[in-house]
Each structure stands twice: as structure tokens, then as C-alpha cells.
């Protein structure tokens, strides 16, 4: 069985102490870094872009899982590979030619991910799931950290798990938004492989300990 992973989202870190927070994740039991790129068009917020990711990559000792919340992501696939992205997830809702985009991501040596907004059905991945390495199920509306978890996500995880099995796909299921110790176990039991956690980790008193607890919860 696939090991269950935790990916702290640096969106909730202290940007004035980014290196300190990256080192904390390096030393912790976390598995990946989750990096949220927002363009102020696809989502009503702007976060950070390539120069910041390049700087993060110099210190990060774990895989960089980049979540693009941008329109027309094809324009930047090559650049994200150059600055150090290992996984690159694009939004289904932002792609006109999703299959082509997935191939382009893989051509640059990255794992290809597709993120789905809460209103987007997993059924829409029926014809591409075999080409997808990672599906990011948004459990909040994208754009901001610290929002409440949407309960319908459990149903979507189960539907997606069935689709993956039915199509013999190796895609992993990642949950992004409002993840905490209260929903982590139930998400993994429903079929999730990777849990992204921003506020729950970085706004806690002891982030290293919080990551450890989350890992124990889903072991
Ligand atoms: O992509 C996003 C938000 O759009 C997420 O990755 C958030 O950064 C998760 O933050 P929390 O909900 O865990 O605070
Ligand atoms: Co994200």
C-alpha cells in the first residue's frame, strides 16, 4: 500500500522567516513541500512565483509539490521545471487542452497533477486519469489558506478512488484545504494518499510536533 504523506503548505509560513520554516520542514517528519502559486486572475489572491520558488528550492531537502492556481499554465511549464518543481499540478478549470498540458509537464521531467475545484466532478477525469500522476482534490475554494474543510470531499475521494481502480491508473489522491487532525484519518480511510496542511501546521504552537501528530494519525 502507498505510504500516506503529509505536505505542509508554505503559504501559511512566515515569509519573513522563510528559510527558518523550510528548515523546520526539512527536520520534521513531513514528506513534501506544497507550494501555492496564485495569479490574482484564476483565484482572487496573489502569492509568489518563480524567483521565490527558486530561492526555496536552494534550502528545501524534500520534494517540491507545486500547485498552480493560474490561467493558461502552459506558458510557464518549462520555467517551473527550471526553478525546481518536482510535481506540477494545474487546475482542470484553467486548461483548454488538458491532455496536451499533462504531456508537456511530463516532457519536462515532472510528475503531472490535476487539481479540481470543489464544484468540479471527478467524473470529468474519466478520459485523462490514465495520464495523471496526481489528482489534487480541493477541499476549500482555492485562493486562501485557513478556510473551513468542505465535507463533500469525502464522497469525492471515494468516487475518485473507484475511478482510479476502474481505469487501472496509478494516480495518487491529494487533499488540499482545511486539513487538520480531526479529518486526516477519515480522509485516508476514504482513499487519500497525500494531505496538504497549511494553517494547521504553521499556526500551531509547535509545528514539528503537529506534523508528527498528523503522521501518526494517518499511519
Ligand atoms: O491551495 C491552497 C489554497 O488555495 C492550499 O494549499 C492552502 O495553502 C492550504 O491551506 P490550509 O487550508 O491548510 O490553511
Ligand atoms: Co494548494
TrEMBL record:
Record: residues binding a divalent metal cation: 34, 36, 67, 176
Any one annotated GO CC term: cytoplasm
EC numbers: 5.1.3.1
Cofactor remark from the record: Binds 1 divalent metal cation per subunit.
Molecular functions per Gene Ontology: D-ribulose-phosphate 3-epimerase activity; metal ion binding
Cofactor(s) listed: Fe(2+); Zn(2+); Mn(2+); a divalent metal cation
Function: Catalyzes the reversible epimerization of D-ribulose 5-phosphate to D-xylulose 5-phosphate.
Protein name stated in the entry: Ribulose-phosphate 3-epimerase
Organism this protein belongs to: Flagellimonas nanhaiensis
Source organism phylogeny: Bacteria, Pseudomonadati, Bacteroidota, Flavobacteriia, Flavobacteriales
Amino acid at each position: 500500500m502507498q505510504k500516506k504523506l503529509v505536505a505542509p503548505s508554505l503559504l501559511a509560513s512566515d515569509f519573513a522567516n522563510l528559510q527558518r520554516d523550510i528548515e523546520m520542514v526539512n527536520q520534521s517528519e513531513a514528506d513534501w513541500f506544497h507550494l501555492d502559486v496564485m495569479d490574482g486572475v484564476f483565484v482572487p489572491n496573489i502569492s509568489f512565483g518563480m524567483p521565490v520558488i527558486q530561492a526555496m528550492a536552494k534550502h528545501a531537502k524534500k520534494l517540491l509539490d507545486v500547485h498552480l492556481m493560474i490561467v493558461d499554465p502552459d506558458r510557464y511549464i518549462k520555467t517551473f521545471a527550471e526553478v525546481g518543481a518536482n510535481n506540477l499540478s494545474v487546475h482542470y478549470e484553467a486548461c483548454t487542452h488538458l491532455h496536451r498540458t499533462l504531456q508537456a509537464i511530463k516532457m519536462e521531467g515532472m510528475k503531472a497533477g490535476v487539481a479540481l475545484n470543489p464544484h468540479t466532478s471527478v467524473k470529468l477525469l474519466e478520459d485523462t486519469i490514465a495520464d495523471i500522476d496526481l489528482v489534487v482534490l480541493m477541499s476549500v475554494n482555492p485562493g486562501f489558506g485557513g478556510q473551513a474543510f468542505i465535507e463533500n470531499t469525502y464522497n469525492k475521494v471515494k468516487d475518485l478512488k473507484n475511478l482510479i481502480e476502474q481505469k487501472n491508473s496509478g494516480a495518487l489522491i491529494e487533499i488540499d484545504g482545511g486539513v487538520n487532525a480531526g479529518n486526516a484519518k477519515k480522509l485516508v480511510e476514504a482513499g487519500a494518499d497525500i494531505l496538504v496542511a497549511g494553517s494547521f501546521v504553521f499556526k500551531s504552537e509547535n509545528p514539528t510536533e503537529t506534523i508528527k501528530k498528523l503522521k501518526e494519525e494517518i499511519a
